[in-house]
Amino acid sequence: MAEWTQCPSCQLKHVARPDGLCPRCRHPIAVGWGAGPAAPVPAPAAVAASTTLAPPAPGLPPASPPPPGAGLPAVTFPVGMAAAPYAFTVGRFIGGVFGTWGRVAGWIVPVALVAYSPGAFALYRLYARMPTGGPPADPLALFRPLAGFLILLVLITPLERVAIARAGVRRLRQEPVGLADMLGTAFRFFFPTVALLFLVGLAVMGTACTLFIVPAILLTAWAASLPAMITEGIGPIEALKRSWALTRGLRWQVFAGFLVVTLIVVAVSCVLQGALTAVVVAAAVGVAREDPHRMMGAMSVVQATNVLLQGVYDTVLTTATAVAYHQLRVAAEGPVAQHLGQVFE
Fold first, then answer.
1. 255 lies in the same domain as 112
2. Is residue 103 part of a domain?
3. Residue 282 vs residues 36, 98, 128, 242: alpha-carbon distances, Å
4. Number of Cβ within a 10 Å radius of residue 143
5. Confidence label for 302 from pLDDT (cuts 50, 70 and 90)
6. pLDDT tens-digit profile of 240-288?
7. Do both 140 and 9 map to the same domain?
8. Helix (H, G, I), strand (E, B) or coil at 156
9. Are residues 209 and 326 in the same domain?
10. 289 and 321 part of one domain
């Protein structure tokens, strides 16, 4: 397979040309990673003869010089590798996130709704049982069911994250997405995912006193850790190291991409939840004067629906981690890297 090299002048990554020059800026480049500058390759005699300007014929304008590189042999690239390198950009990342999410929404949204249904039911029970005439006689009795459902949600969350990331990675690799594969991968990586989320949460909480500067750096550098773990079959610590290496030199772009995606999700969330609350409250305010329990029942429906919507929003952010892993790996290792994950399965 042809080696990729990087131009020291314009930073273009490409396969080395026979003339030893960068195809963009014609600067002498290095052959292979870490090698010294490539010596310019003299043009063949036939090429040199063809590029020599002949004297113009009488009455004709002088011939213009040929364009740079004219007459050189064409460069052949391996199958599956493009001539131009793949660059990780914010726009490409954002488009990839919403494009991939739209293609796998039929699989991942039902999984998220099932995963968040315990929390939704718990909040519904909490608001439905909340008294309207004064404080409850036993306040803890209201929150005991909520605590149990929250514990169940904590156990389900790792399974849901892995299933969604798995669906995103397979779609990006142009492989079929299936519920059996998603759930099988989720249960197989349940304990490693719990350890990974614990390590990330511990690091974020331990550095929260830095005005969230260090947590933002860590979350950006570890954004591709979960897809890397389930795709390459590595452990949690190795996944964090792998994501750290993939994001090196591109963390500003990764941070900006996740920031824009998060702001879009938050904006849509505020609009939908605000509209839902306004509609439900407007419908219940007329009967709330006669029966205050009607208002609490309406609010319980609003809160439960908001939890389910939050699960849908989280599918976008989890899909974003799969897109970040895929695009970062292709940018670092070439377009053929998108198929390398199959060797770990």
1. yes
2. yes
3. 73, 33, 18, 51
4. 12
5. confident
6. 999 999 999 999 999 999 999 999 999 999 999 888 888 877 776 665 5
7. no
8. helix
9. yes
10. yes
Do 240 and 270 fall within a single domain? yes
2-53: per-residue pLDDT in tens? 456 777 776 666 666 667 777 666 667 654 433 444 444 444 444 444 444 4
Q: 91 pLDDT exceeds 50?
A: yes
pLDDT range class, residue 317, cuts 50, 70, 90: very high
Looking at the fold, whether 102 and 249 belong to one and the same domain comes out as yes
The candidate with the shortest Cα–Cα distance to 323, out of 239, 242, 258, 276, is 258
Q: Is the residue at 327 inside a domain?
A: yes
Each residue of 165-190: pLDDT tens digit?
Answer: 999 999 999 999 999 999 999 999 99
End position of a domain, from candidates 85, 116, 151: 85
Q: What is the DSSP string of 53-106?
A: PPPPPTTSPPPPPPPTTTTPPPPP--TT--SSPP---HHHHHHHHHHHHHHHHH
76, 148: one domain: no
Structure confidence at residue 74 (pLDDT): 40
Domain around 24: 1-43+70-85
Chosen domain end from 85, 118, 151: 85
DSSP reduced 3-state for 174: coil
Q: 68: alpha, beta or left, given left = phi > 0 and alpha = psi -120 to 50?
A: beta
Please give the full DSSP string across 99-153, using - where no structure is assigned.
HHHHHHHHHHHHHHHHHHHHHHHHHHHHHHH--SSS--S-HHHHHHHHHHHHHHH
Q: How many structural domains compose the chain?
A: 2
Cβ within 8 Å of residue 229, ≥6 positions away: 189, 192, 193, 196, 235, 236, 238, 239, 242
Q: Do 147 and 166 have their domain in common?
A: yes
Q: Which residue has the tokens 């080696």?
A: 3
212: pLDDT strictly greater than 60: yes
Q: In terms of C-beta distances under 8 Å and separation of at least 24 residues, what long-range contacts does 58-65 make, across chains too?
A: none
62 located within any domain? no
